[in-house]
Amino acid sequence: MKNEFYDLKELYEYAWRLVIRGTVDKKSPARHPTIGTNGISGMPELRTVVLRHADQKTASLEVHTDIKSKKIEELGNNPRVGMHIWFPTNKLQVRIKAISEIQKGDEIKEQWEKVPNESRVSYGTLPTPGTIIKSSFDYEKPVKFERFCIIKLNVEEIDLTHLGNRHTRALFAKTNNWSGSWLAP
Ligand SMILES: Cc1cc2nc3c(=O)[nH]c(=O)nc-3n(C[C@H](O)[C@H](O)[C@H](O)COP(=O)(O)O)c2cc1C
After folding, report:
1. Closest protein CA for atom 6 of ligand 1
2. Cβ contact 181:32 at 8 Å
3. Pseudo-torsion of CA 111, 113, 116, 117, nearest 10°?
4. Ligand 1: distance of its center to the CA of 184 in Å?
5. Would you give the DSSP letter of residue 145?
6. Any idea what the CATH number is for the domain that residue 105 is in?
7. Is 141 part of a structural domain of the chain?
8. Distances (CA, A) of 37 to 160, 165, 174
């Protein structure tokens, strides 16, 4: 566990390592980040998701969802996404800004093949997610490949806050080739 950071690159690499761990370790806080979109009415919308893929080289992240979910409509309107993860053991807050793209159909057939059967029912709910229903279980969960999509997050900025002996904060931006700057925490 790091107590204090003096080196921007070290902090940046550390944060990516923790984020990537979420894609393989179900107990990692990065397994279940919160993502934020701009709601159609202008109100913020936040929800928990599963982090499916993270790649430091391309600075990209992936989340799976139902193409009929509200967030997809919102992203069609405004592709900007926020992601938040708090790592309590490492005392690190990660705040990400990204531009999303939606992948669907044949281009994601390979990823669909890897989705376990019990998870495939998350893509195809009838009526569509968010519809008012008469009673709590008044819905069905058929498996529908055509409802499966991937939200790819192309990361633009990463804001890190570390609560060490002394607190540190740093901002890393794609436009600066991720070189980073210290910020007053
Ligand atoms: C632990 C947990 C994991 C979740 N994972 C996902 C996910 O990977 N993808 C997803 O679309 N929704 C996931 N959800 C449901 C979302 O939080 C949300 O309720 C749903 O996607 C509808 O959101 P929307 O109306 O903003 O589109 C998860 C919920 C929980 C509690």
Report:
1. 49
2. no
3. 130
4. 34
5. G
6. 2.30.110.10
7. yes
8. 20, 34, 20
Q: Is 132 among the domain residues?
A: yes
Domain extent for 17: 8-183
- Return the DSSP state at 108: G
- Read off the tokens for 92: 């690190």
Query: Distance (Å, rounded) from C-alpha 30 to C-alpha 18?
Result: 7
Take residue 35 and report the two structure tokens written for it: 């993502």
> Each residue of 121-174: pLDDT tens digit?
999 999 999 999 999 999 999 999 999 999 999 999 999 999 999 999 999 999
Please indicate whether residue 18, judged by its CB atom, sits closer than 6 Å to ligand 1.
Answer: no
Strands 92-104 and 167-173 come out as unpaired
pLDDT (tens digit, 9 = 90+) per residue, 98-115?
999 999 999 999 999 999
Largest CA distance in the chain: 57
How many domains, in total, are found in the chain?
1
Residue 158 is which amino acid?
A: I
**Tokens standing for 103?**
């992948």
Alpha carbon distance 66, 54 (integer Å):
20
Q: Which residue in this structure is represented by tokens 């029912």?
A: 121
In a domain, 1, yes or no: no
Structural domain contains residue 3: no
Compute, in angstroms, the gap from residue 47 CA to the centroid of ligand 1.
Answer: 6
